[in-house]
Amino acid sequence: MIIDGKSHSAKLRKKIKDELTKICQNTKDVPKLSVILIGDYLPSQIYVKNKQKKAKEVGIKSEVIKYPETVSEKEVLDKIKSLNNDKEVTGILVQLPLPKQINQKKIINSIDPKKDVDGFNPLNVGNLASGYDAIVPCTPLGCIKLIKSVQEDLKGLHAAIIGRSNLNGKPMAQLLLRENCTVTILHSKSRDIKEECKRADILVAAVGMANLVKSDWVKKNCIVIDVGINKLGGQIVGDVKFDEVKSKAKAITPVPGGVGPMTIACLLSNTLECFKAR
Ligand code: GUN
Questions:
Q1: Which fold has domain 28-112?
Q2: What angle do CA 26, 32, 35 make, to 5 degrees?
Q3: How far is the CA of 219 from the centre of ligand 1 (A)?
Q4: 95 carries an active-site annotation
Q5: Fold for domain 138-259?
């Protein structure tokens, strides 16, 4: 089974739109997402444009605040402070990666946790890790929704995650733990990555290495989620060798058209939740 991320994303966006339409009948307030975009890194520009378009479609106001690559850290921090204090702004996202002169930790820490639609602020990270209510990072949130669309009860399953980033691997592990999975996080220093993967009932590849996961890395009937977006010979491919693995997996996400569309839908969902929780 190929997991159709586009269709799951469309369903979630429709649900968000319907809910917002209902809420906005009785109030003049609307959610507003402010995105800070620094420099001219093309993938970031494409992501942000896409986010804006999809936000508009569901009835979320959005603005993009652009800065040149050379902007100072202070200027960005001052802007975030003013967005934190702006009652009209209900969600703030600073597109990553950031240029070298800007300290990512300082930027993320400065975002009001209640407006932190990315769920990257340490308060949200800590709440998620403690099993409390939290804003959950959009990509792993999308992944867990896709996994649960295949199998609702994940209790006791072995999950392996390749990659330990703050954006994907670590929050993914928390979400799978919350579902009572046994979780293994694999990374560049792990031994026997292939052997660990072979034991997994759920395999999430989020490492950014084209076609890393081959068919003989995967147990039969595994649920395979591919977070990778890699350029290879003018094509976009995932971290999983899709053509080989698809016949072995119980379900697998394609790249493109799997996790990517779901990430954007989850960003809109987080933006709606921040708006509702004000
Ligand atoms: N750059 C790549 N992915 C993301 C994301 O999920 N959030 C932000 N803010 N930047 C990113």
A1: Rossmann fold (3.40.50)
A2: 170
A3: 31
A4: yes
A5: Rossmann fold (3.40.50)
